[in-house]
Amino acid sequence: MFFYNTLFRKKEKFEPFNPSKVGLYSCGPTVYDYAHIGHARTYVFVDVLKRVLEYSGYKVDHVMNITDVGHLTSEADTGDDKVEKKAKIEGKTAWDIAKYYTKDFFDMTGKLNILKPQVICKATDYIPQMIKIIKQLEEKGLTYVISDGVYFDTSKLKNYGKLARLKIEDLKEGARVGKNKEKRNPTDFALWKFTYLSGRSFDSAQDDGDERRQMEWQSPWGVGFPGWHIECSAMSMEHLGETIDIHTGGIDHIPIHHTNEIAQSEGATGKLFVKYWLHAGHLLVEGKKMSKSLGNYYRLKDVVDKGYDPLSLRYLFLTAHYRTEMNFTWKALEGAQKAFSKLKVQLATGNLQLTNKKEKRVDSKLDSQVEEYSKRFRNYLNDDLDMPRAIALVWEVVKSDIPDSDKYKLIVDWDRVFGLGLAGQEIRNKELVISQEVKGLVKEREKLREEKKWEEADKIRKEIEEKGYLVEDKQEKSIIKKKPRYDL
Ligand code: AMP
Ligand code: ZN
User: Fold this and answer.
1) From CA 193, how far away is CA 174, in angstroms rounded?
2) Are 438 and 467 a contacting pair, CB within 8 Å?
3) d(CA 265, CA 273)
4) Does any ligand 1 atom lie closer than 6 A to the CB of residue 66?
5) pLDDT tens track of the chain, all 488 residues?
6) What is the whole-number distance in angstroms between the Cα of residue 135 and the centre of ligand 1?
7) Does ligand 1 come within 6 angstroms of the Cβ of 70?
8) Which residues surround ligand 2, an ion (CB under 5 A)?
9) Which of 430, 438, 431, 428 lies closest to 463 in space, CA to CA?
């Protein structure tokens, strides 16, 4: 199995530290606003990665953080904390903001069949672990304190910037991380930020009547809150150990967030932090990154409101390689929905039903053909998760002349990786066929309505609804529909 490792800018053979178990850490969302489908693309990529590892026989320990503190509006360690800022705007507590948008995020990922990581951890629950790492860095002389916080001295680390291939000397002050006259190097970053200038304790701050943050903690350096990057080092080490196999995120994380995670983790432990760094390309709209700040984003709710199945969006994501940029258009989603529906129909009503009777093999050539498809599928997964070719192979199988039951078995097995819910299609399709029982109830109800027996008719309506259908009364006829599956 080969993955493109950002650290070396090439595909590398995957060899986890433990041959049967993989430690996987994914940078999670900052929960200050609704999740959009750009986020969805990155987390579908993570989900496919995890499913591929499991399909290949690995046990995966998957950890994902929730950033509920410390992510500032500027990457230069200045500006407001995004969560606290939103709390002020909405007149809620910072804790409530984080809780509300965390729920929104998991509502979205659930509808996209994204499996939940085994460990989901909030930054605010790991403050002692973060302080411990900062102390270790301090003991090694890698930090310094200025008036607004404790900073990492990037000039002290030999390989600083190895992931992003940064050269400190090439970076002009202000070019990348903004101006802060007290910082020793432009790339230095905050490990701990003070609520009040030059630290101070809770007590002295209260005496002054200063405005306090909602989220703040006492530390050896003064009252404050952690810098954004330190949380991922702390949570990754806590759950997966000092060195892990795979760390994921969007490409925007390479130059700052992941670069700084490496600096502080390797600075503290003296060990390699991550063996394989995997990064997802962005989802764009008209050539620009879909983002909150540009206002060019869509939520999954917008997708559903326009009549699309969330899994059509997942299908669309699978048709592009995770590392490429992908331009989102409604037309592309329309195309994906059509293809996905066609595939579902093929599985449910077409040729591909799993028959009980054993189909006689005409010759052994067919067996080897099935074997060949399986092999090709695995090869595509192993080649840096080549989902576009894997999806194309599905269609090749559909059009092939291998027995229908083999087609079905292959595709349903592969869906363990695609996560498109294809295995249930046969059953779902049966549900779509309205049973004789429900048809009988509809008839009975229509008769009662003709006789103006409204109460009895209503009882039957309830019975029909309990069986998963909706009844719409048109002039003379009742129209029966399946209850919607997605009620955002
Ligand atoms: P954030 O909540 O901004 O910290 O982002 C959470 C994750 O979503 C990060 O890994 C980002 O790289 C990723 N992300 C944000 N916007 C996009 C986008 N337009 N396309 C793909 N991934 C994105
Ligand atoms: Zn992170």
Assistant:
1) 20
2) yes
3) 6
4) no
5) 999 999 999 999 999 999 989 999 999 999 999 999 999 999 999 999 999 999 999 999 999 999 999 898 887 788 888 999 999 999 999 999 999 999 999 999 999 999 999 999 999 999 999 999 999 999 999 999 999 899 999 999 989 999 988 766 655 544 545 568 899 999 999 999 998 766 766 666 666 666 778 899 999 999 999 999 999 999 999 999 999 999 999 999 999 999 999 999 999 999 999 999 999 999 999 999 999 889 999 999 999 999 999 999 999 999 999 999 999 999 999 999 999 999 988 887 544 554 444 455 556 777 889 999 999 999 999 999 999 999 999 999 999 999 888 898 999 999 999 999 987 654 444 445 567 788 888 889 989 988 999 999 999 988 887 776 777 776 666 666 555 433 22
6) 30
7) no
8) 27, 232
9) 438
Closest CA to 246 of 70, 67, 27, 465: 27
* Lookup: tokens for 477: 């006829």
The sign of the CA dihedral 221, 226, 230, 233 is positive
For a mutational test of ligand 1's pocket, the pick from 42, 256, 321, i.e. the residue with the most ligand atoms closer than 8 A to its C-beta, is 42
pTM of the model: 0.84
| Ligand showing the shortest atom-to-Cα distance for residue 328 | 1
DSSP for residue 24 = E
Check pocket membership of 265 for ligand 1, CB cut-off 6 A.
no
Closest residue CA from atom 15 of ligand 1:
39
Q: Is the CB of 258 under 6 A from ligand 1?
A: no
What separation in Å is there between the alpha carbon of 225 and the centre of ligand 1? 23
Q: For residue 103, report the distance from its CA to the centre of ligand 2, in Å.
A: 19
| Ligand that comes closest to the CA of residue 232 | 2
Using the 8-state DSSP alphabet, how is residue 169 labeled?
A: G
